[in-house]
Amino acid sequence: MKETTPTTTQRNYGVDLLRIICMLMICAHHVMGYGGLWDIYDGSSPVFWGLDAISALCMCCVNCYALISGYFGSGNKRHSWKRILALWIVVLFYSVVLSVISFAIGYFPPTPLRILEMVFPLITGRYWFFSSYFVMFLAGPYLSYLVESLPKKRVQILLFGLVILFSLFRFPTLVFGKDVFLVNAGRSPIWLCIVYLLGAYLKKYPLPQKILKIPPFLLYLLFCGVALLEKFVYYKICGILGWSDYAIMNNNMIWVVLSSIFLFYSCLSLKVNDFFGKVIKVFSSLAFGVYLVHMHPLGRELMRGRAISFAEKLHPALIPLFVIVASIALFLICSVIDACRFWLFKLIRVPKFCKFLDEKLARITSDSE
Questions:
Q1: If 199 and its partner were Cys, which of 55, 67, 80, 300 is the partner (CB 3.0–4.6 Å)?
Q2: Is residue 359 within 8 Å of residue 85, measured between CB atoms?
Q3: C-alpha closest to that of 126 among 160, 96, 100
């Protein structure tokens, strides 16, 4: 048994690369959204569908993070409080520091509501992903227990029912504008918990080899294409019937779920040499900070409308390329900022403090009497 330990505990650089790719996808969405590109084009423009093609390729990013958590969190002997504590401290750090900067330079007045939001980012929804992720983290051990304790068929029925309920039945939300199941287009804790459960299931019951004979990346591209096709058809229907076309393509779309699974498998089996692995590991550790920096109200304000000023000077055919370049630039700029934060935390021994709290909480939450 000892001889197999190194291979089972070896870091998977492919999954680290997936974390980086997913954050670049998030940056691309925000460049198009907060940058204002989606505001100046409509369905009659080829640019609109070029941007939507990028969106289809990137839509699986949030699901992939939940899949990673479910896949690698399932089967652990105890809850790792260290990671969630470390994330929470980073969230609080950026919420306070960037808010103080925005108050100081006059971007936002320091109202009582903004100060409360600054000090309590988790419960005020300043970062929706972290708020949902926090709930998913707390529910994770119990979701993993379902997969580990229930027979395979019962888990399959549970997952199938949840996906049908929260994914295929999303059309009433699109048609009537009522989010009956509180999924919030796949941005709710409910949806992240479902995808976590899916990740835990795939850990115990991997996809059959006959499916994986087809390169997973090709299947990822296929389902991204189907998602884009469905949006095109639904967009036309909306134009005829006068329905809202808001959030047709979202996290809980069935094709997005399938593309998430196959992108995850593409990276899971990826072989990376040690040199590139170390580089990937560094940028992967900074990915969450990239999200926190550019999605703070100050970051969003600095992004707002900026992409339009550049895009208007370009040939329309170059705008999708511009989105890709701008996303990489945004990722690198925020990575540099988070690298400074990382060294500051190391200097004041924040990781050791998180480890200390982790050990204390582990004793409190242990199953032993």
A1: 67
A2: no
A3: 96
Reference 94, options 295, 355, 285; nearest CA is 295
How many angstroms separate the CA atoms of 135 and 122, rounded?
10
Q: Is 42 helix (H, G, I), strand (E, B) or coil?
A: coil
How far is C-alpha 300 from the geometric centre of its chain's CA atoms? 17
- The residues, ordered by sequence, that sit 6+ positions from 4 with a Cβ below 8 Å of its Cβ are none
Write out the two tokens for 70.
Answer: 């479910």
pTM score > 0.70 for this model?
yes
Question: 246 pLDDT band (50/70/90 cuts)?
Answer: low
H/E run at residue 363: helix 350-365
Between the alpha carbon of residue 341 and those of residues 27, 33, 98, 338, 352, the distances in Å are: 20, 27, 12, 5, 15
Domain ranges within the chain, ordered by starting residue? 18-97+128-365
SS3 of residue 317 by DSSP: helix
Q: Name residues whose C-beta falls within 8 Å of residue 108's C-beta, 6 or more positions apart in sequence.
A: 99, 102, 114, 297, 298, 301
Tell me phi and psi for residue 16, to 5 degrees: -60, -40
In degrees to the nearest 10, what's the CA dihedral of 297, 303, 308, 310? 170
pLDDT at 199: 95
Residue with tokens 């998430």: 260
Contact present, 64 and 263 (Cβ < 8 Å): yes
Do residues 95 and 299 make contact, with C-beta atoms less than 8 angstroms apart?
A: no
Q: How far apart are CA 335 and CA 286, in angstroms?
A: 6
H/E stretch holding 133: helix 128-149
Instruction: Give the position of tokens 């070896």.
Output: 10
For residue 2, give the DSSP letter.
Answer: G
Q: Tokens for 85, please give them.
A: 């504590």
Reduced to 3 states (helix: H, G, I; strand: E, B; else coil), residue 202 is helix
The answer to whether 174 and 234 have CB atoms below 8 angstroms apart is: yes
Consecutive H or E run containing 30: helix 13-33
Joined tokens for residue 346: 């190391």
Does residue 226 contact residue 60 with C-beta atoms inside 8 Å? no
Given CA atoms 357, 85, 116, 189 in this order, what sign does their dihedral have?
negative
